[in-house]
Amino acid sequence: TPPEPLILTANPPDSHVLVIKLNRPRVLNALSTALVDLLLSALKSADADPDIGAIVITGNEKAFAAGADIKELASLSFPSIYIQDYLRGVSEGIPSFKKPVIAAVNGHALGGGFELALACDTIFASTNAQFGLPEVKLGTIPGAGGTQRLVRAIGKAKAMHMILTGDTMSSTEALNAGLIAKVYPPEQLLDAAINADSLAKTMASYSRPIVAMAKEAVLQADQLSLSDGIRLERSLYYSTFTTADFTEGTTAFLQKRTPSWKNA
Ligand code: HXC
């Protein structure tokens, strides 16, 4: 029998959402370089696919991903990890993609698995989710954006505590801390992430260029000073007035009908 694919993809009918399921269940979806390469190419082709408006990355009920594959890590030397730049393509790629990428987290999201979720545009989780950066326990530190993104997500005190102890955070704590946007029972998480009101399918139903502009503006909040960020926002906002979809959206509202987006 052929080996099981490391990722599985699905495109539920009429959703315009691509679901990417990490699929190494026997090792809690440890992110081998082979899996990460496949993930990056699936993300890139979904970002370029005109039928797709949003992407959901998920795992299984036990694990979103329990981190880098420790077996692989243990065999790497400094020059090889430096050259390989493990997870960097995904961690820096997701923010540069035009389409929203959502992490739907069940179970463990640890180390590189948590960093993958942090690189996503938003996180939905189940009541059994556990988030943590346990690298310190292995004699290393987070290396795919964890130290920087976690501070921005939940503030210095909580981030420092998690990174220096390796302690995990439950989804209740994560919701209170502003780390995640929504929480569902485990068996409902994926369906909700795709179909529930105001989740992936809803994002995918709006004008693609407008959603891309909104994503860009939000992500720049971490990069720019407040005045530069507000200037960027204003210029993107004024740019929307040049689009057919601004005309369509406002006209449809005034005519009390559903807009029919032109993606233009
Ligand atoms: C390789 C892993 C793994 C990992 C689990 N497994 N996590 N293999 N890499 N990250 C394997 C186990 O070895 C085991 O294989 C099987 O998956 C099931 O795991 P168990 O430990 O038996 O499950 P459980 O007792 O339920 O404990 C779950 C767990 C624990 C608490 C999540 O597995 C764990 O602590 N995993 C490591 C988490 C971690 O340290 N992640 C950070 C990695 S470093 P066998 O063959 O025994 O059945 C990192 C750096 C990123 O991510 C840097 C980015 C640049």
Automatic annotation (TrEMBL):
Gene Ontology cellular-component annotations: mitochondrion
Keyword line: Lyase
Biological processes per GO annotation: fatty acid beta-oxidation
Molecular function terms from GO: hydro-lyase activity
Pfam families, A to Z: ECH_1
SUPFAM superfamilies documented for this protein: ClpP/crotonase
InterPro entries: ClpP/crotonase-like_dom_sf, Enoyl-CoA_hydra/iso, Enoyl-CoA_hydra_C
Family the entry assigns: Belongs to the enoyl-CoA hydratase/isomerase family.
The protein's name in its UniProt record: Enoyl-CoA hydratase
Species this chain originates from: Clathrus columnatus
Phylogenetic placement of the source organism: Eukaryota, Fungi, Dikarya, Basidiomycota, Agaricomycotina
